[in-house]
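Request from the bench team (R.T.):
"We need a structural guess for the complex before ordering more coenzyme A. Sequence and SMILES attached. Just send the tokens back."

Command: build protein-coenzyme A structure.
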Amino acid sequence: MDTIRTERLLLRRARHGDLEDIHAVLSDPRAMRYWSTPPHATVDQTRDWLGDMIAAPADVSDDFLVEFEGGVVGKIGCWQLPEIGFIFHPGIWRRGIAGEALRAVLPWIFGRHALPAITADVDPRNAASLALLARAGFRETGRAERTWLVAGEWCNSIYLALRRPD
Ligand SMILES: CC(C)(COP(=O)(O)OP(=O)(O)OC[C@H]1O[C@@H](n2cnc3c(N)ncnc32)[C@H](O)[C@@H]1OP(=O)(O)O)[C@@H](O)C(=O)NCCC(=O)NCCS
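Reply to R.T.: structure attached below.
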């Protein structure tokens, strides 16, 4: 079974029935502030996003939705290996949920894919994501300017990597 259990969380593959819960995350401007697209304006947009996640080939993508207290509260994993991505509903932020999920998904990904490192691409203003990744052992590998144009605003990138443990 492609599931990971932690003390409080269940990480599992996406299903079409998750549409409402994940739309609540992807349509929230606070959660989407530093995402690569603007907040989802319609449920149809999230339906397409979810369909792509469900259909993604296993050699390219290893991604999970995260259940907490019976509902889906976010996603974590590699939409495109080896880059990690995560997003959680603001209603459960700052309770260690993302950290708990990240600590569980990193060994899963290293265990199933022959990757020298897992990488990340974070907006320098995204303090929460940078803190989360630093705590998990990610280190900066570079920076670039004007990497993403989102809703008319150019964003910059900090690149980070976590090397495969010896
Ligand atoms: C980044 C995110 C996943 C963190 O989720 P979370 O469940 O609140 O994270 P945690 O409670 O596990 O905290 C992880 C670390 O980040 C820190 N942190 C959380 N929010 C923070 C904030 N707003 N500012 C600074 N640090 C913050 C915590 O203190 C903790 O660090 P510590 O272990 O050294 O104390 C969440 O803020 C989010 O979904 N953001 C929007 C999506 C996003 O930007 N994704 C990344 C795109 S690259």
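Two things stood out. The chain has one domain: 3-163. The chain has a mean pLDDT of 97.
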